[in-house]
Amino acid sequence: MTGTKGTNGIGQYAAVTAAYWGFTLTDGALRMLVLLHFHRLGFSPLELAFLFLLYEAMGVVTNLIGGWIGARFGLRITLFAGLAVQVAALLALSLTDPAWILALSVAYVMGCQAASGIAKDLTKMSSKSAIRAVVPPHAEGTLFTWVALLTGSKNALKGVGFFLGGLLLELLGFQAALWAMAGGLCVVLLVALLTVRADLGRAKGKVSGRDLFAKSREINWLSAARVFLFASRDIWFVVGVPVFLYSTLGWSFDQVGAFMAAWIIGYGVIQAGAPRLLRKTTTIDHGARAARIWAALLLVTTVGLAWVMVNPPPGFQAGWALVAGLLVFGAVFAMNSAVHSWLIVAYSDADKVALNVGFYYMANAWGRLAGTLLSGLVYQWGGLTGTLWGSAALVGLALVLTLPLASPQRKVEAST
Question: Does domain 6-198+212-402 have CATH number 2.40.128.630?
C-alpha cells in the first residue's frame, strides 16, 4: 500500500478506528431500539426478524463490492460513505408512524435497515483492512494482537450501544433517540473528513473484477466456516433471547438492553485478550488448529446449554440457567471469532487485503442473514430451546468446515 507504513500509517489507522468506534455505538443502539420499539407495537417474532433481513442481506453485496472499491480507490471513500449512509438511515427511520399499516411499516423499516447494513459493512471493512496497512508482513503476533484489540473493543462498544439503545428508548422515546444518534454521528463524520488521507488501503497493482472471487483454499474454507459460526449465534441472539427475556421473564426494556450489552461487552473483552490466552499459538498453522479446538468446545457448550434449558437442575430457575449458559457461550464464541478474525488477515497479503476481508465478511453476512431469518422462524415454531438446538447444529457444521484448514509454517514475531 502506498505510504501507509510507520507513524503516519498508525495515525491514519487510529483515525479510521476511532470513526468505526463512533459508528459502532449507534449500530448497537439502533439494533436494540428497533427490536424493542416494534415488539412493543405488537410485531411477532417472525415480523421482527424480517425487519433485520435486509440489514444482513446488504452485507453480502456491500462487503464484496466495498472490498473491491477499497482496494482500488482507498479506504477513505468506503469509510466516509458508511458514516454518511448511517446518518441518512437514522433520520429516515425517525419518520416511521405507528399509524401505518403493518405491511408499510415492515417494508419501510426494512429499507432503512438495509441502508444501515450497507453503512455498517463499509465502515467495518475499512477498519479491519486498515490493520494490514500498518503491520509489517509476517509479524503474525503483532497482527493477532491488533486484530483482537480492534474486534474486542468494537464488540464492547456495541454492547454499550445495546444498553444505550434501551436507555434512550426509555428516556427519549424512539424518534428523539434516533435524532440524537444522527447528530453524534455527524460529528464523527466531520472529524474523519479532516483526518483520514485518500490513499490508505489502496492496492499498488491493478484490481480487476476477477479478483473478487479469486481466493486461496484457506480463505475459502475459513469463509465457509464463518457462515455457520455466526448463524449459530444469531439464531438465538437477534430475536429469541431479547423477546424471551422481555415477554417470558418480564424484564424491562432497559434490563434487556443492559443484559445484551453486558454479554457483548464481555464477549469483546475476551476477544481483545485472546492473544494472551493463546500464547502458545506460535504459527498460523497453530491458529488453524486453535480454530478447530475452540469450535469443538463451542459445540459442547451449546449442546449443554440447550440440554439444561430443557432439563434445568432442581431448584435452578430457567432464567438463571439461560443467563449463565449464555455467558459461557459468549466466552467460547469470542475465542472462536478472535482466531477467525486473525486468520483471515494473516492469510492475506497487504496489497489486496481489502478484497479478502470483504470476501470473508460477505460470508459473515450470509451467516448473519441465515441466523436472523432462523431466529424468527425457529423461535415462533420451537421457542427458545428450538433456537438453541438449531445453534448446536450450526456450530457442528462450522467445526466440520475448519477441519481442512492448513497453512504454511510462519513463525510469529518473538516479541508477542
Answer: no
